[in-house]
Amino acid sequence: MALRIAALILKNELTPNVTQQLRQMRTSSVARSQFLKHSPNTALDKSILQRYRNLETPPNRVQATYLWIDGTGENIRLKDRVLDKVPSSIEDLPDWQYDGSSTYQAHGENSDTTLKPRAIYRDPFKPGQKDIIVMCDTYNADGKATPSNKRADFQAAVQKIADEEPWFGIEQEYTLLDVNGRPFGWPNNGFPAPQGPYYCAVGADRVYARDLVEAHAIACLYAGIDFAGTNAEVMPAQWEYQVGPSNGLKASDDLWVSRYILQRIAEEYGVVVTFDPKPMEGQWNGAGAHTNFSTKAMRAEGGIKVIENAIEKLSKKHERHIKAYDPKEGKDNERRLVGRLETSSIDKFSWGVANRAVSVRIPRGVATAGKGYFEDRRPSSNCDPYAVCNALVRTCILNE
């Protein structure tokens, strides 16, 4: 396969299908793990950087780290620029360009792609200074949103329903890997004991890399993310954290920035983060991004009826949501949503109270109170939260 693709590159005869295969090769976990065996990151003396972080910088100069989502719909890219003043709002930040042909978003002959700043965060990697992280979305040369820019359409939907006050809370699950591609802490030539003792656990034989997880929580709070909590998950080396509940776009912005922060911290620990929804085959839980959703009417007295009405709408749009809930339009979730290991079947919509084997769950407390929110358990851990939240809004509120 690799030789065939290389030949096509030389002949300039890449078809869309082969381009997709090339992208998968470039981003595959196998290729990354082979490279990481030789990664020099962990050999660097991290204390040296601290000498320079303590230097005083000019008061009118600010480092801004611009983040964006590349053409895979899964990966974060970034580059830094120095600004001449501390921005007081997002409007003070300039647009910027980058080479979209190197991020699967443009052709080389017309590669300039535009970054538009959308949200500002404090930078936890430059503490005590004025420096910021800037979450952006991306636009082609003609001014249209790139195909991987799901934020633009979600923003358009949110502007139509401001009075509904949509809230989102997202539970991000992820798995930590060592440089050989095995779950972190797992035996090199075998498997740990079956699932059971690891969820919300304590102990060196049950929990791995808690220091990394706690560093991530602190950094997210410093950045200004609506960070709600964290816990060890059912599979060893698997963790979860939560963002929200937040109104409108913020939960999705927060999730992307929190993913970036997590991966940056993992760089320093020499650990790999994967958002693959099924990193280990067999009787091991997959990883999701369960999304909790409510409107003002759902949170009001008698809101359970509004919740049940929204679930009825979702039941009629199951295929649409499955396509929106992972970057490969359901192909990743096929490996995870198998009707067992706390998942529903990808082929059939279901719902219930306090049931974790359904598509949509109403928590027990919500059913008792008669108001609140519901949890959509279908989104994969590598989902684009803009696409997930947009689908919920357009189905449940806009009746599309």
TrEMBL record:
One of its GO terms (molecular function) is ATP binding. GO terms for cellular component: cytoplasm. The keyword Disulfide bond does not apply. One of its GO terms (biological process) is glutamine biosynthetic process. Its EC number is 6.3.1.2. Residues 150-400 form the GS catalytic domain. Pfam families: Gln-synt_C. Keywords: ATP-binding, Ligase, Nucleotide-binding. It catalyses: L-glutamate + NH4(+) + ATP = L-glutamine + ADP + phosphate + H(+). The keyword Heme does not apply. Residues 62-143 form the GS beta-grasp domain. It is an enzyme of class 6 (ligase). PANTHER family: GLUTAMINE SYNTHETASE (PTHR20852), GLUTAMINE SYNTHETASE 1, MITOCHONDRIAL (PTHR20852:SF44). Homooctamer. Belongs to the glutamine synthetase family. This is Glutamine synthetase. The gene is LOC115628623.
